[in-house]
């Protein structure tokens, strides 16, 4: 195929999820730093730094749902009513 379609899809090198073994190795490396990370978190909370407080609350109580507040700002909506079917009186 001279138009390049053979290059469009299929398996690519280094694509997809990394092996679970690689993830476990990373967790083992990082677990050595748990005490250091905890001390840094404590220090940041004691100093009243917002980013530490925010992370602590997200992990402790869960991240709040993000909501989009759509209000009219006190103005009335002008939404046309649509009839989807007729209801006949019997």
Structure characterization notes:
It contains three helices and no strands. With 90 residues, the chain is an all-alpha fold. It has a domain at 19-61. It starts with 19 loop residues before the first helix and ends in a 29-residue tail after the last helix. 0% of the residues are buried.
At a glance:
With about 90 residues, the chain is mainly alpha-helical. Helices cover about 40% and strands about 0% of the residues.
What does the secondary structure layout of this molecule look like, with pairings?
Elements: H1 20-31, H2 34-46, H3 50-61
Helix pairs in contact: 2-3
Output the radius of gyration. 28 Å
Q: Look at the structure and give the mean pLDDT.
A: 82
Helix content: 40-55%
Structural class, by secondary structure, is mainly alpha
Proportion of residues in extended strands: under 5%
How many strands? 0
Distance between the termini: 67 Å
Q: Enumerate the spans where pLDDT stays under 50 for 5 or more consecutive residues.
A: none
The description of the largest β-sheet is: none
Identify the overall geometry: flat
Order of helices and strands: HHH
Helical run tally: 3
List keywords for this structure.
90 residues; single chain; mainly alpha; 0% strand
């Amino acid at each position: 195929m001279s138009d390049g379609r053979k290059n469009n899809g299929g398996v690519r090198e280094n694509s997809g999820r990394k092996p679970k073994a690689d993830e476990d190795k990373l967790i083992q490396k990082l677990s050595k730093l748990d005490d250091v990370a905890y001390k840094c978190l404590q220090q940041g909370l004691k100093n009243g730094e917002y980013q530490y407080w925010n992370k602590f609350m997200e992990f402790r109580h869960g991240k709040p749902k993000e909501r989009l507040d759509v209000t009219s700002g006190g103005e009335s909506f002008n939404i046309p009513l649509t009839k989807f079917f007729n209801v006949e009186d019997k």
